[in-house]
Amino acid sequence: MQPFQRVTILFFFCLAWLAASPVFAAKRPPPNVIVILGDDLGYADVGYRDSDINTPNIDALAKGGVQLGSSHGMSVCMSARAAMMTGR
C-alpha cells in the first residue's frame, strides 16, 4: 500500500468519525445532578436514614438516585458554602 493511499484512508476515516460523533453524542441526554446543602443537617436527620423527621421528597430522591454516604461535613456552614462555590 502506498503512503498516499494510507493518508487518504486515514483522512476519510477521521472525516467519517467526526461526522458520526455528534449523532452518537446527541442520543444521550445530559445527567440530572441535584446537590442539597443543608445547614446543621446531621447524618441521620433525613427520613431515608431511619430518622423520625419526615422528609418524603428527599427520601424519593434517595430511593431513585445515587446516595453519597462517605462525605465529610464542616463545622461551620460558611466554609462548606465556599467549598461548593469554588470547588476546593
Structure, described:
With 88 residues, the chain is mainly alpha-helical. It has two domains: 1-29; 31-88, no CATH class. Helices cover 50% and strands 0% of the residues. The protein is elongated. 0% of the residues are buried.
Mean pLDDT rating: 78
How much of the sequence lies in strands comes to under 5%
Unreliable segments (pLDDT under 50, ≥5 consecutive)? none
Number of domains: 2
What class, by secondary structure content?
A: mainly alpha
In short:
It is built from 3 helices and no strands.
Keywords:
mainly alpha; 88 residues; single chain
Give the topology, please.
Elements: H1 3-27, H2 56-64, H3 77-86
